[in-house]
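Entry type: protein chain
Record version: 2
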Amino acid sequence: MKNLLLVFLGGGLGSLFRYFLSLIFVAKKTGFPMATFIANILGSLLIGILLALFIKNQEWTQDYKLLGAVGFCGGFTTMSSFSAENIQYLRDGNFGLFAIYLALTILLCLLSTYLGFQIIKS
């Protein structure tokens, strides 16, 4: 039961931070889903940092991983929104923006996760 509560609490906090990003970066202003883009990159960086910290600090309990990596990062990152936005670009025939958004998000999220590991590894 405790594990469920930790994931629930972390996910709720992550979702709130994700919502705040959507208020800051309204997609209609630019036509580009900047909030989703930023959330996925920051979430990838954060999960890289957290996972490296868990490896480095073996004494940390599973509670931290459930709260931070599973809960917060799971609630904060927005792969489902990312997928829906890309499908909409395809449906609208906006293949250029689809390709740019898809490629940049995947590349930058992978690099951000790697960077998160490197920050802690140093």
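Comment: The helical segments are 2-24, 27-30, 34-56, 62-76, 79-91, 95-121.
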